[in-house]
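Try it yourself: sequence plus acetoacetyl-coenzyme A, in.
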Amino acid sequence: MAEAKAPNQRGGHAEEVSAEALAEIGLRFEVDGEIATITLDRPDKRNAQTFATWSALARIGDNLPERVRIVVVKGEGPSFSAGIDLRMFTPEGVPGQGSFGSAARLDGPAFEERLRQAQSGFLWLRRPEIVSIAAVQGHAIGAGFQLALACDLRIVADDVKFCMKEPALGLVPDLTGTKPLVELVGQARAIDICLTARIVEAQEALSIGLAERVVPGDELAKAVQDKTAQLLTTNRDAAAATKRLLQGAAGRTLEEQCAAEGAEQAQRLRALFGGAS
Ligand code: CAA
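Structure, out:
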């Protein structure tokens, strides 16, 4: 795990991770103007994830340049991600990172803190200032499914296979995925998907709201590019304010939501036309 360092511009406390360190973990991170791309880059192991993956994702979030408006999360090779690295279940674990066995032997607060740190790699993808898009092909299993769920939008290839495998392995999905899953597909379908650990393929994913769009595999990159271009046509501050409103809507009454709309609009109008803030 990375140690906390000086606060950065987003209020985080971690240092940027070098491209070399990311490559060792099996990640790539590129920024091109307002678009950042995170690539899970361990295709020979189907982009399996480790604690180091989640820690690096958190640090990418902490150090995301302010100019970035779109974050694309994708996977190299045939699978988006086969989920947690299965070596975590072995006594030897992942070299330098231990195993679930060693983590479980930490005392209560230390263990829970380790799990919270892992979640922080996924949580920042919901920030109002960005729109995150998962470009998903092939398998998105367990932690892979949850990473796709952490993104605002999912554009998928027609060979996609979502699977929430955790309950089949004696675990629960704990990487921030249960809330978006229920919000997207409803509680009954979420129970069906998780408690059977069955595979959800592209057409079902589209029809139940798990995916925004299904395209042939060789058109996935272009579909994501087109969506990115569309998203960048709107005003940056209005987009962030609107996402804040949409994110808060489910937890507010109609009256509260109207008040929130009014407050955001007053701020927008003052920013656009001047006036007291
Ligand atoms: N961890 C580590 N290595 C993995 C892996 C994983 N999760 N998934 C695949 N690999 C490795 C394989 O061991 C194999 O390595 P070698 O070539 O060295 O033998 C390589 O990746 C290719 O795998 P396959 O030959 O199996 O590839 P495939 O295309 O035929 O099948 C697959 C792909 C269906 C994803 C299959 O690999 C598979 O079922 N993987 C395991 C999926 C899984 O159970 N993940 C755990 C989910 S639960 C979770 O994620 C828990 C959590 O969040 C806490």
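One thing you can check immediately is this: Residues 71 and 132 are 5 Å apart (CA to CA).
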